[in-house]
Amino acid sequence: MKNTNRYFIEIAFDGRAYxxxxxxxxxxxxxxxxxxxxxxxHRQPIHTVGCGRTDTGVHATQLYAHFDLDRTLVPADIPKLxxxxxxxxxxxxxxxRLLAVAPDAHARFDAxxxxxxxxxxxxxxxxxxxxxxxxxxxxxxAAMNAAAAILLQYEDFACFSKSxxxxxxxxxxxxxxxxxxxxxxxxxxxxxxNRFLRNMVRAIVGTLVxxxxxxxxxxxxxxxIQSKDRSxxxxxxxxxxxxxxxxxxxxx
Length: 252
Hints:
Helix content: 10-25%
Shape: globular
Order of helices and strands: EHEEHEEEHEEHHE
């Protein structure tokens, strides 16, 4: 059996044309397109392992994946290889970094923090179509931030998990959750945790927007989380405004 070398690749993508990250039958995904480009470049089958999965239409400004090669890449050749893989990738996927890692490094299991942003805007803007969620009325940001702060008091987020998913635990450690204005027309929700459940961020945002609209008091967040019932939380917001923005590792 040949010795292999492991590499991390950092990418960014506009998710509008893809059915999420993970390869699936009869649908175009980011992983499928990336694997094809890397396989063509290195003239051998390449199968990447991503840091997590994203849903259809979700974007990423930073996503890491690892893959193995049966040869060693010379550091001086990395810029050229990045240029070549970007030439093979479509315009909505960009390779940003390529680096050698330890043979047992794992893009998914070694990640210590993941961060997402959810973007909303309040005036029609053709350049934000598919990249931000258009809301008619500006919600109560202070109320939403009061409710978001409650998230940090809990660890079990079964209420925000997509139904009928096979997960071993609903425990997540949220370290930051806050709405901030990006400009006069854009409001962005920032959230960081060690891990996220499927559909979790979109369900959290949906719950917070209901609170921001005055449908519930901020303290309603306690009731939702303690219920451990997905039906107690708000509806999932559209994928358009969701971005994976950071994946942190102890060795990067």
